[in-house]
Amino acid sequence: MTQLKKCLYLIDLLKRRGALSLGEINGCFKRSSLYDREITPRTFARYKDYIASNFPYYIEYDARTRKYVLMSDEPLYGEDYSLYNYLLSAYHVETLTELALKHKDKMIVTEMPTGVENVYTVLEAIDQQKGLECDYYSFNRKTLKNQTLIPYFLKTWERRWYLVAEPLNEHHGLAIYALERMENVELTNTVMLPSNEITPAEYFNGSYGVNHSDNQRPETVRVKVYDTQVDYVRSVPIHESQKEIETTPAWSIFEYSIVPCFNLYQQLLWHREKLEILEPAHVREEMKEAIKKMLELY
Fold this sequence. Notes:
The chain is α+β, with helices and mostly antiparallel strands.
């Protein structure tokens, strides 16, 4: 765990400060809460290897400046840095602990994703190829039911952890479970292997959040965003497929490959009169009908 934290520290340091010599790295490291001893060239080489093997980054030595530079390994990992960014974010929070407690009256934070207490057990089950036994509460049925699940993968969405899993002997496919509604979670004694080799990217292809149906097909959706709201949409994309395809001083058009769903309409309505759906026609019509029903309430 210490090696992981120190490697996260090195990634964060080189991302923030740019190229640094080993001496400069050690100068910064001495002011860190992780500091126990100076990083020797041999130890630094080990950390470099660990970073290259486990993260979408690698550290390269620039002989001209005699400094180390953090490089991105995009050809290997593509653009999905979400897990690594999450780990870096968690590292930042941990390193803030002492100062945050000292200045707690100067901070307002939102709740962390719920269900996090079950994440480690789920990952253990995946790692050991075991199933999970738990009591699961269904909002739809208002019941608490004992379940045996074969875990596939995890996803965070709107401050919740979700598990995609295969319910044993009672379901034809996969289902999605909110981790905060799982109680008494334990690993099974026997090995349980997934019957499907689907990947998270395939399962959630075009999905908004954790919405999924077996016959879903992503559509090309275009929206026009007005005024200063353009900057917000640019900086916090509505969906990972977002592309800005047309730009003017007054508005921009964004394109998505996405499956229209209730949660997507909610998100688009969040932008109020600053966002207009252009196409496809049926998605534009669906939004129009929703707005009509809202007007009837007023």
